Amino acid sequence: MFIKSIAAKIFAKKVFQKTQLWATNPIATQQAVFDSLVANARKTQFGIDHHFDTIQNYQDFAQRVPVRDYEDLKPYIEKVVQGQENILWPGKPIYFAKTSGTTSGAKYIPLTKESMPYHIEAARNAILHYIHETGKADFVSGKMIFLQGSPILEKKNGIQFGRLSGIVAHFVPKYLQKNRMPSWKTNCMEDWEAKIDAIVDETIQENMTVISGIPSWVQMYFERLEQRAGKPVGDIFKNFNLFIYGGVNYEPYRAKFENLIGRKVPSIELFPASEGFFAYQDSQTEKGMLLLLNSGIFYEFIKSDEFYTDKPRRYTIGEVELGVNYVLIISTNAGLWAYNIGDTIQFTSLKPYRVIVSGRIKHYISAFGEHVIGKEVESALQEAMEGTEIRVNEFTVAPQITPKEGLPYHEWFIEFENDPQDLDAFAEAIDTAMRKQNIYYDDLIVGNILQKVVITKVAKNGFQEYMKSIGKLGGQNKVPRLANDRKIVDLLPTL
Question: Global pTM?
C-alpha cells in the first residue's frame, strides 16, 4: 500500500474523532459559535448599529437583528467594497466572492481570514470521512480534477475579487498540487467550451482517480471524453473511484452518469456556497449531509411556508424537526448577520444533524397555490425513471397558465438522452409521483383546476445553448429546476 494511503487513513481517523466531539454536542457547539461571533463583532459598525454590547442571549439577538437578504445588507457591503474597515467584521475581508445576483446584478460576498480556512477544511474533511468509513484510500495517489471557475483574481481597495471556486484554487494543499488537474494555464481559461477541450487534452492519458464538480458540467466533460476516446469514461480512467459533487441534486443525473462511466462510482455530496461551507456527506449509508456546526457559522431556520408571513418564528438547532422545509439563515465570521442565503433544507437526522437541500425559496411553482419545490420535481422525475432505460440530460419545470385549449398545467421541459417509448405514459408517471408528494397539487388535479403534467422535449444541448446565450455556461452556474414564470422556458430550443 502506498505511504500516502496509510497516512490518509491515520489522518482520517483523527478528523473523524474530532468531528464527533462537536457533532455529539450540537447545542453547546452552536452556543459557543454564537457567543464568539457576537463578541468579535461588538465594535464593528454593524455591531454598534444593532447594539451588540447589550446582547446577552439568542433572544436578544433575534430582537435586534432582523433577517436580511443581500439587498438589505448591501449598504454595509458597499462600504466594505469601498475599502472601509470594521463594518461587518473586524478589519477588512481578504477576498470577495463575486456571484451573479438576480435583482442586484453582481453580488460581493465577503471572505475573511477567519472564514476562509473553513471552506478548505470542510472539503478536505468530506474526503477524510469517506476514507475513514470505507477504508478506501488508494485514490489519493492518483490524479484529481476539480472543474471550477478561473482562479484569476482582481484587486480593488486592498481586497481581491473572484469566483469562489477560483479563490479556493489558491488554497490547494502542497501535498495535492502534484496530483491536481488541470494545469494552472488551462484553469485560467474563461471560455468554458474551449476549457473543457483543453481539460480533455490534459487528462485523457492520466490516471484520474477523483473527479469533482457540478454534475451538469462534469457531464459535459464526460461526453467530450467519450467522443474523443470512443469508449466509456470508466474504461479511459480505470482507477476512477470517487465522484465529488455539489450545487445540484445528483439523482436526476445518476443514470446518465453511470451510462457515460460504464459502471457505478461512489460519490460524496457537498453543500458549499460563497456565504459558507454548510455541510458534507459524512456517510455512504445514511441519507443527508452533516451540518457543520463548528465552522464559524450560527444557524437559524424559518419554516418555508411561514417565511413570507409577518414576523415568522426563527428556530435554532435544538428546535428543528425532521422532514420540515426550512429556509436557511446564517450569521458568520465573514460578517453576514441573520442572512437569508435563499436555500431551503430539510433535516434527515437529528443525531447527528444531517440535511438535504430541498430547493430555493424563490424557485417554486405556486401559480395556483400548490407551492411545488425543487426536491419534489427532482424526486418525481427520479421515481418515474426507476426501472426504465430513460435517461435525462437536464430539465426544468414552469406553469402554463394560459394554454391554447384545455386546463392550465405544469409543463416539464426535458432534454432526453434516451427518449421514453411512450411519452404520455412517462408524463403520467411523473404526475402520479407529484400527486403523492404534494397534496395541494393533488387537490388541483382532483378539482379539475389543473390538467396533468405535459412534457415538452428540449433539443439536444438545448440547455447548454440557453446557458451560453445568457453568459452562464460552465463554472458554478446551474439551471433552476423550476420557476413560477416562463422566462427560462420561453428561451429553450424545443422539438
Answer: 0.83
